[in-house]
Amino acid sequence: MIHTTDVSLGFGGQTLFKEVNVKFTPGNCYGLIGANGSGKSTFLKLLSKELEPDSGEVHVAPKCRISQLKQDHFAYDEFSVLDTVMMGNARLFELIEEKDAIYAKENFSEEDGMVAAALEEEFNDMNGWEAESEAATLLAGLDISEADYSRKMAELTGPEKVKVLLARALFGNPDILLLDEPTNHLDIKAIMWLENFLFRFSNTVIVVSHDRHFLNKVCTHIADIDFGKITAYAGNYAFWRKSAELAKTLRENQKKKDEEKAKELKAFIQRFSANAAKSKQATSRQKQLEKLQLDDLPVSSRKYPFIEFKAEREAGKDILHVEGLSKTVDGVKLLDNVTFTINKGDKAVVLCKNSVAVKALFEILMGEQTPDSGTFKWGVTTSQTYFPSDNAAFFNDSALDILNWLRQFSHDEYESYLRGFLGKVLFTGDDVFKQTSVLSGGERVRCMLAKMMLSGANVLMLDEPTNHLDLESITAVNEGLIRYKGTVLFSTHDHQFIQTVANRIIDIDDLAASMNATSYDAYTGYE
After folding, report:
1. Within a domain: 456
2. pLDDT tens digit sequence for 70-115
3. What is residue 38's predicted lDDT score, i.e. its pLDDT?
4. Alpha-carbon separation of residue 60 from 23, 25, 65, 92, 230 (angstroms)
């Protein structure tokens, strides 16, 4: 078990946590959620003792081993894949190295024999003879082949490294498992395997993730960072969200009732305080008024944008026809004879393990790249707006503030008109005068969404729109695309996003494209 007692922590004058008391018990999986900047990853570091709190304590039960997934892709580049996984249990790996060093001695003494015997006993107690087999099972589940076990980590691709680092965290049945964004860069097969692994895992799991579907599948509890506190709730993310919305409504209703009651009491006191016959009643009302709690509602760190795409004109039946597109970049063939048709009202997701191939396809369709061969044709009544996975090119002019940045893309340059769109994506008041050069990744994404809403296009193209967004913003974009009446072509790794938006699947993993009119779950065979 792991728990905190009055833990507080702040950075740069900002308080992240104040007197946090929370308990994580074995057999449960806790989804750690909160707005961007609320301190989710920081709290994991406190739990792992990588950081020390300003005050309070983190308590870990004696002999409990903590294992943590970190997104450091270069930390183990000099080690082999198999060794990296087995290093997940530091003491076991030390035993292996110590044993190998002793047995490699040319002059093996009686004392060496006694040390070796002690090491062998500890190694056996830790089930060391099964270690390589367990590591291989984890790697196989994550689709890392046996041929890769001896390769150096530096030789692997980014997604392959993520899988090995995940296997490292899971290795050796840790007592407490801390996972920071474990589904990043994982394909659907690997995510399904991880969900099944965590479902069977009997110890404590604390996971940070922006994947709502994953949180719903694996979590028994939600640990919510808000109001400067961390509160644990039973149930998965969907249950927590419904409960949180209900609690917010009840708090607001109670506040409204209190305000109406206070108004009524004040009116009575003012009317009858000078009336001798009613003075006792007025005094009684005064006491009631003093007891009435009229504290403001706690200020939540959560903010909910409103994403609403509206087409200025309706598109005709012909939307997009793609015929035989091929593209090779730096000697790597990304697209090979890709052919598909998008019809009016289609909301099609492009599936591909290679994000560069998706980017190439979208940029070709937007006229930003030229195909090596093949053609595409947009319907004459269509208008397109594009959300690229890399938006840096849109923010080259560092002298612009957010308001004037958006003004570049608007036919109506009045401030009130632009503020309407910026307010929907949570830029209010003086926020609109913030320089674009200092925006965070999430703030840039919200700027791009405002630009898309402003466009009035009847075809939306979005390449990984959920990157850098918190759960509230992801949900807002998701719901906005569900409501949108036009045509959508998009890519994302967010399972729930695809399942709830897409009615067409375009799979370009085999370089060419296969198009299917079905749901994501049906296409992938997800159970």
Report:
1. yes
2. 877 788 999 999 999 999 998 898 888 888 888 888 888 888 889 8
3. 86
4. 10, 11, 9, 20, 18
Q: How far apart are CA 466 and CA 441, in angstroms?
A: 11
Nearest in space to 171 (alpha carbons), one of 205, 121, 132: 132
CA distances to 31, 143, 199, 499 from 522, rounded to whole Å, are 27, 22, 22, 9
- Same structural domain, 324 and 383: yes
Q: Are residues 466 and 518 in the same domain?
A: yes
Strands 318-329 and 373-378: antiparallel
d(CA 367, CA 456): 19
Residue 460 domain flag: yes
The pTM for the full model equals 0.83
Please give the residue that has the higher pLDDT: either 281 or 9. Answer: 9
| Whether residue 333 sits in one domain with residue 281 | no
* C-alpha closest to that of 471 among 224, 185, 221, 217: 224
How far is Cα 142 from Cα 170, in angstroms, rounded to an integer?
Answer: 11
Residue 426 lies in a domain: no
- The CA dihedral of 310, 312, 313, 315, to the nearest 10 degrees, is -50
What CA–CA distance (Å, rounded) separates 526 from 130? Answer: 31
Instruction: Please compute, for residue 445, the number of CA atoms within 13 A of its CA located in the half-sphere on the CB side.
Output: 20
Residue for token digits 């609403």? Answer: 308
**CATH code (residue 230):** 3.40.50.300
Tokens of 95: 């035993």
Residue 445 lies in a domain: no
Do residue 285 and residue 353 come from a single domain? no
| Domain C-terminal end among 235, 257, 277 | 235
| Kind of pairing between the strands at 384-387 and 487-491 | unpaired
Beta carbons of 32 and 48 less than 8 angstroms apart: no
Enclosing domain of residue 349? 318-400+452-524
Residue 177 pLDDT greater than 80, yes or no: yes
Q: How far apart are CA 175 and CA 181, in angstroms?
A: 19
Largest distance between two CA atoms of the chain: 109
Number of domains in the chain: 3
Min mean pLDDT across 40-54, 62-76, 244-258, 367-381 is at 244-258
Q: Which of 91-100, 290-299, 352-361, 442-451 has the lowest mean pLDDT?
A: 290-299
Q: Kindly compute the dihedral angle of the four CA atoms of residues 43, 48, 50, 51, in this order, to the nearest 10 degrees.
A: 40
Query: Could you give the CA distance from residue 362 to residue 390 in angstroms, rounded to a whole number?
Result: 12
Same domain, 370 and 224: no
Using only the alpha carbons of the chain, give its radius of gyration. 28
Q: What is the Cα–Cα distance from 147 to 407, expressed in whole angstroms?
A: 55
Q: Is the pLDDT of residue 282 over 70?
A: no
Split at pLDDT 50, 70, 90, the class of 277 is: low
The pLDDT score that the predictor gives to residue 310 is 95
Examine the domain organization and report whether 456 and 373 are in the same domain.
yes
Residues 331, 256 share a domain: no
Same domain, 364 and 497: yes
